[in-house]
Write the structure tokens for this entry.
Amino acid sequence: MIDNNTETKTCVVIGASHGGVNFAFSLRKEGWLGKIILIDKDPLLPYHRPPLSKSYLTNGDGMDANLLKSKESYDKDQVELLLGVSVGEIDKEEKYIGLNNGTKLSYDKLVLATGARPFIPPITGIETATDLFPLRTGRDVENIRAAFEKSISKKIVIIGGGYIGLETAASLKKLGGEVTVLEREARVLARVTAPEMSSFFMELHKKNGVDVLVDKNVVSIDNTEGVNTISCGDGSSYDADIIIVGVGIKVNSELAMEAGLTLENGIEVDETAKTSDASIYAIGDCTYHFNPHYNRKIRLESVQNAVDQAKVAAAAICGKSPVYDSIPWFWSDQYDVKLQMVGLSNDYDEIVHRSEEGDNKFSIWYFKGSELLAVDAVNNPKAFVVGTKFLKQSKLIDKAKLKDNSVVFKPVNLLK
């Protein structure tokens, strides 16, 4: 049961994105009576991140249309916001954090929702580039939009063919940009999807007028009179007014490291999101946690994971006994295509392709032996729902029936 004395206690949350915000409100819902202080270096009221590379970039809506919670919601639940400030230290012995403005805040419970930041690769000359941006924050999007509006040629090069790079390419093409994507690997999305999915998205972008080029290792950037020239290891080069870098992220684990918390591919946490310190929890992109379904430790860059861990941590801090046991899911919007993914396809040894009637409507099912690992559903929410159900129940699928689109697409009809 919850400690009856929490009205005298303070929970401090570092990071006010999806994980931190959902944690704060979940903690209050679970019965925490004391202070909740939510800190973030971003000065803006916390907002949704997924639309940044999609609708927020293209439609020009103000940030008010993308808020996670209204200002009144924080006031109602007595969640104190400290925005536009950074945390410089954690003293886990004395149980306080130090802010960059010199303020020290004591805590009884501390939650790290520090997330990650864009990785900027050490490309020769990258520091001389003009109008070069990552895409991670609302400010990044505003900067990209402002650069795009002043650009005459609208030539854009995106370094990196992951989901962020491809989504941004689709959005900027919609705005009228001349877009080229440079991917270092032999195919886009190489680490997360099957070759069939990579080929599908390559063709999708080609049909929409975006050049997606693979085996392009960017080695240097030269800026002459405001024009960026991006050179690759194969001798090719590309001019751009705007460069967007989307090659991955770096986990924000420095505070945890300096505090002496256990790190391994992020901040290591147990099934309740607790770190190696009993008073400190961590949630979201920055955590390395055990996933019972896949029977291994993983780190996920996922809104869903951040929200799930937030709820588990809030319940645990309030004296309950939750256990993290979620199946990951993700999504991506590009042009008129919605991709919904559930599960993790790592280590698959077979895929099954199921086609459906309709434009660009199909699903890819990833198996390891007889075990279903994951499903990619393109413009096919039913496949996403059915796949999620099979994953949760760990039931065996008849692959021949799954592949045969004359078989009515219901779980009971696909059982082995």
